[in-house]
């Protein structure tokens, strides 16, 4: 009986942890798929690769929505209030970006900035949820000012490549660096409490 109770208590925690990691991984695939498509535009040699990236992007985005819904079901009762707010913000932002992509022409400034910056914000929110579902994250000290500076730097770097789009290799490198810096910033800000 004690073993059954023990597995019931660890099961949902492990399930939530797995779901947040999967959602985060899907977000990274989605963001890099979108970046590849954006930076490959106009390059005839990359048309086939861009078409594959479009399909990967779409599938990853759809599966992300399903997984984040699962995170909501698995974690709503166990997540702290601040992490519930992050989860709600992530779902709301995902819905807003879906509508932005559907109703705004891709050349419009709102779509040009909203999609990549919104995608990066989704990744940051996703990383927060990974930390919230990780047992040791709450014991780490927070460094909110350093974290906020890194988060701002990540968004500034991404905004810079939206304003002046580089080639594919540089663009993807900046996207990768911005994502890594964002994750580091969110980790420094996160403190596990409300």
Tell me what the structure shows.
The chain is an all-alpha fold. It has one domain (2-189). Helix content is 81%, strand content 0%. It contains six helices and no strands. Helix 1 (2-40) packs antiparallel against helix 4, helix 4 (109-132) packs antiparallel against helix 5 (144-163) and helix 4 (109-132) crosses helix 6 (168-189). It is globular. It starts with a helix and ends in a 5-residue tail after the last helix. 34% of the residues are buried. Mean pLDDT is 87; it is low at 1-12.
DSSP helical segment count: 6
Total tally of structural domains: 1
**Major beta sheet, specifics?**
none
Secondary-structure element sequence? HHHHHH
Strand content: under 5%
Name the quaternary structure.
single chain
Instruction: Using the alpha-carbon principal axes, give the shape.
Output: globular
Which class best fits the helix and strand makeup? mainly alpha
Low-confidence stretches are 1-12
């Amino acid at each position: 009986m004690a073993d059954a109770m023990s597995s019931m208590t660890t099961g949902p925690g492990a399930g939530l942890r797995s779901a947040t990691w999967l959602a985060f991984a899907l977000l990274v695939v989605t963001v890099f798929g979108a970046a590849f498509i954006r930076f490959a535009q106009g390059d005839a040699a990359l048309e086939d690769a861009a078409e594959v990236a479009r399909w990967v992007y779409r599938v990853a985005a759809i599966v992300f929505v399903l997984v984040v819904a699962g995170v909501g079901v698995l974690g709503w009762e166990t997540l702290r209030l601040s992490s519930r707010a992050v989860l709600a913000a992530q779902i709301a932002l995902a819905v807003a970006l879906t509508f932005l992509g559907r109703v705004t022409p891709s050349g419009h400034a709102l779509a040009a900035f909203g999609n990549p910056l919104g995608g990066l914000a989704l990744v940051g929110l996703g990383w927060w949820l990974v930390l919230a579902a990780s047992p040791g994250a709450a014991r780490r000290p927070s460094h909110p000012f350093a974290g906020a500076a890194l988060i701002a730097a990540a968004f500034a770097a991404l905004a810079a490549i939206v304003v002046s789009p580089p080639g594919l290799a540089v663009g993807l490198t900046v996207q990768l660096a911005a994502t890594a810096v964002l994750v580091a910033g969110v980790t420094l800000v996160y403190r596990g409490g409300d």
